[in-house]
Every structure is written in structure tokens, then in C-alpha cells.
Amino acid sequence: MTIDLSKYTRIPSLPTVALEVLKIFQDPNSSLDQIVAIVRNDPAIVGKLLKAANSTTYTTRGEITDLKRAVVMLGRSSVTPLVLSFSLAQQSVGTSLHSEYYRQFWLRSFVQATTAEVLGAQFGSPTFRGECYTTNLLAGIGKLALFRAEPDRYLKCLQRWQDGDASLLRIEQEDLGFTHVELSGELLKQLGLPSRCVRAIQLLDSDVTPTAADSSEQESLIQISRVAHALAALMCDKTPGVAIVALEEALSNLKLPNPLSSEELLGLVQDRVEATARLFDLDPPQLPSPSEMLQEALEQLSTFAVVANTSDQQKPVPIELMEENGRLKRRVADLLQASRTDSLTGVFNRAHFLTQLAERVAVHRVRHQSLGLAVVDIDHFKKINDTHGHQAGDYVLKLVAESLQHGLRDSDLLARYGGEEFVILMEDSNAAGLPIIGERLRARIESLAIQFEGKSIPVTISIGLSESPVICEESEFARQLFAAADAGMYRAKHSGRNQFCIEPFMADSMACEASDFSARLTRSPIGAR
């Protein structure tokens, strides 16, 4: 579409130096002397480039005090992105009525550009790496133009986005008739950004796939930019559940020389952001670990999936995840499976167990059926780790989980609760069946002939079991049922291990034990007993 730019000429007032550097960015024949002549006109940027040249990020011997030497050392492919970064950073940290918005914009742009640079570096060309950085640094500049031209109107778009109505691009399309990505492309085209960079920006949130007319480098730039856009959303936006789906899809389409998982990429980007943030007077918030960021995203995605199947209208689900044929929805099922599964053993994880416990209690209450629960703990697991090593311990956990799973009905649910502890939810159970289940599981594990690196590892388990119809308030019942099975497991431990104990469900003791069990249910996984 053609966008009327007359309203949006107040693009961020980038210093003349930045605009001149951007103009020669597409000229492969431009010389370092030309860049030096331009940059010399802005003392602030000169100081930043000298600081960069002397930083550990760009490693050098001896202090560099001359601008030309700094530019030569940094290289043409690094100087242009650095000058543009310094300029945008200046625009984003100044005093303003909406300074926090500008700060957030700059942080997100910096993360997106850093991600693209990390990925572009795999292709070996310093020029391509710099192009990836520059393209993604400027990809969101349409936001600044919108904010400066129509601040009140654009703030409403941002507020709708913060409230979780839909993606920012969808809201912009509805309220403005175009998106900041489209505006960024048009503005940067006028500023002289190479057409291949503009095309990568215009296709950031598009289903369009690169065509035969695109060179392999152009295709890589498009796919890298999509990955960078998604990862920046994961790290900086408030809908990581949507972002993780987009990130996984974009990564699967990017043909890297050395493939990276989303967690590996997050780690590389986080390290790079922390290493270079000070160059740009940037004080990024304390970021959680990559695994914690991914877990948060998967938990939000799982919550969206649950809400989408209920009548709860108080918790909006992003429209992108509700569309049956939506681009993002293709990978949701796989990601949700990953969010429910323990990565080591392959059985369900603690979070999914707690969700299922609540859901099955509600169902069994309606059906007037009994629900059973078992808590299983591997005996002397610490001794196994200490004697044979943690790799042996991991191997034992996998085999125990597999053996337990084969001893259950399809309707039962096995999960790893933490450490060496497993839990089992048993559908429509009864008191007469608990001893049969307990002995079957105990005997299966005792009979395992586990060999690791030529050494035999004997393994036994202690099991606590309990069951009852749902005869009280659902959350109280769930807590009390777990407490009963947990107490049975401890009794089995104290009675000599390698056995099961059945603990009666005592409804009249619920009130006195509820608060104590609440702490137990939310505790961190503990070590071996």
C-alpha cells in the first residue's frame, strides 16, 4: 500500500552525521576517509567510537585516541551500525514527557539488532553482519514517527496492546490503516537504506516467503530479521507466549550454518547485550536466565490454551492464537507438549501435574467417582549420584520413569514432581485396587537390571497411596489427597524403604493440615531422602 508520509515527516531527528552515514551505507565503494570526515563533525559520536574501539568488545592493544585509527580498527561494517546506535540511543534517553516509552523502544531495537548481528555473524561476512544489525536497529523507526506525529492517537494503540487485545501490528492496522513496519520501510526507503534491507523490514510480520528472485543473502536477511523480531518480543514485550511460537517457527525456517535452539540463541544474545550495553548508556533490566524466559513463555502459552477452551472472558487470549489457520498457531501444539513434559525423563512435569490434579478433581466431583494418587520416591538416590555420578543418576531416572509408565493404565497420569520424586494420578480408583497397584510398581522397579558403564545399580522405590471420592471443596480435596499420599510415602521410607503404604483419606483432618500442606505443594523440588 502507499502511505501518505506528509504527517510523518517528523521522523526521529537523527543527527546530520547519522543521516550522512546512512546515505553512504549502500555504497560499497565509500571509503573510510569519507566516514571519518562525516563523523568528525559530531564530538559526542567521536567520543563513543573511541570508547567502542577501546572496549573489550572490540579488543585492541594499546589505547586508541585517534578517530581514523578507531574507524580503521572497527571496520566499515561496524562503524555504520555503531553511529546509528549512538544516534538512536541519544533520541531515546533524553528528557521527554514520554521518556519511558522512548527508553523501551531503544532497548527493544537494541535487542533486535543484537540478535540479528549474532545470527549474521554465522555467515562469515562482516559486511553482512553489519547489514543485519543496521536493518533491525532501524526496523521499528516507524513507531517513533507515529509517536511524534500523533502521540495521543498512538498512545491509545499502545494501551490496547498492553491490555492484551491483540498484537501491536494488528491494532495499528485496525486503528491507523497501516503498521509501523510498513511506515518504517517507506521512511527508510526515502532515507536511502538499500532496497534489500527495506524488503526485509517490510516482510517482518508477513506470510510471504522469499522468492526465486531473492538471492540467498537476501533470503537469509529476511529470515534473520524475522527471528530477531520474535526474540526481541520474547525478551521485551508482555506476550512471550505468542513470541515463543513465532520464534520457534522463524528459527525452523532459518538455515543457519550452525543451527541454534531458542535457548542457545537467547543465551548468546543476553551475553552480547550485557557486554555492549554500557557503550550505549543503556541500563537493561536484570534479565532472567534463558531457560526461565522460555519457561515463562511456555506457561503463558499454556494458560492461553486453557482459557481459549473455557468461557472465561476476563482473560483475553491473543487473536493470533485463536485463528484456526493463523501462521502462529501451526506450532502451538508442539510447544504446549514441550511445556508439559519433563525434558529428562519424557513424562509429564510438575506444572502439568498440578493443572491436571485440579481439573480431574473437578471432573470426579461431578461424576461422583473416586480419584487416587501415588507419590513415588527412588530410595537412596543421593547415594547413586555420589557413587556412580550424575550421568548414572539421570540414566536411572529415565529407566524408572519408563518402567513406571509401562505399569499404568492409559487413563493414569505419571509426572516427575522434582528430583527423584514422581506422582501418579489414578482415574476412578478404589481402595481394593491400591495394594495391587502399589505392589506392581514396587516389584517392577526392584526387578530392573540397570547397568551403567559396566556396573550394576540396584534400585528400589518407596510409594505412598491414597484415594477418595471428592467429598469436599475441590482445592481442599486436592491438597488433602496429595498430603495423604505424601504421608504414606514418608511412612514407607521410615519403615525400611522398598515398599508401599496406603494412607487413609481423612476429611475431618483437612482444616488442621491444609496450611501446612500448602507450603509442601509449592516448595521447590528437594534433594534425595
Task: Please tell me about this protein's structure.
- The protein has 529 residues and is α+β, with helices and mostly antiparallel strands.
- The chain has four domains: 14-93, no CATH class; 111-276, Hypothetical protein af1432 (Orthogonal Bundle), CATH 1.10.3210.10; 291-339, no CATH class; 349-521, Reverse transcriptase/Diguanylate cyclase domain (Alpha-Beta Plaits), CATH 3.30.70.
- It is 59% helix and 8% strand.
- It contains 24 helices and seven strands.
- It has helices spanning 16-25, 32-39, 43-53, 67-74, 76-93, 99-120, 126-137, 141-149, 151-162, 168-176, 180-191, 195-202, 216-236, 240-253, 262-276, 290-308, 319-322, 332-340, 350-367, 381-388, 390-406, 434-446, 474-494, 510-521, and strands at residues 370-378, 413-418, 421-426, 450-452, 455-457, 461-469, 499-502.
- Strands 2-3-1-6-7 form a five-stranded mixed beta sheet, with helices on both faces. A two-stranded antiparallel ribbon has the order 4-5.
- Strand 4 (450-452) and strand 5 form a beta hairpin.
- Helix 23 (474-494) packs across helix 24.
- The longest helix has 22 residues, at 99-120.
- The N and C termini lie far apart (66 Å).
- Residues 509-529 have low confidence and may be disordered.
